[in-house]
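User: tokens in, sequence out, please.
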């Protein structure tokens, strides 16, 4: 697998299309930090780590409202073949502020709002709305 972040986003997208309650993805620190941001912003219910050492997995409990998923769109922006970077003044709100972008900065992963407040640029990982 060349892009584990895209794989995780696709698993979430597919599970929501099938109205599943949970999704299990292989563990990595980057993916865990990304779903913690989604949990903090209210896009998913709960995140937990299952297993030990090599067999670690991330269990994501999805959030629905009236049998409709809270997340209506996931888009991978920066890919392994083409990295997309944005300077601090190039970061724009996603969907007029209703969505968010996850940005990898020198101070770790954060939302586009936090990056604008802290005046940081970085690699735009994905957009969620």
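Assistant: Sequence out:
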């Amino acid at each position: 697998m060349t892009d584990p972040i895209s794989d995780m986003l696709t698993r979430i997208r597919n599970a929501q299309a099938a109205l599943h309650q949970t999704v299990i993805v292989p563990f990595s620190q980057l993916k865990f930090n990304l779903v913690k941001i989604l949990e903090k912003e209210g896009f998913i219910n709960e995140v937990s780590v299952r297993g030990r050492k090599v067999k670690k997995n991330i269990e994501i409990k999805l959030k629905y409202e009236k049998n409709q998923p809270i997340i209506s769109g996931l888009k991978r922006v920066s890919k392994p073949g083409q990295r997309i970077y944005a300077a601090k003044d190039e970061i724009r709100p996603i969907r007029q502020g209703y969505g968010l972008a996850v940005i990898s900065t020198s101070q770790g992963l954060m939302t586009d709002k936090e990056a604008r407040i802290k005046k940081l640029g970085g690699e735009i990982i994905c957009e969620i709305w």
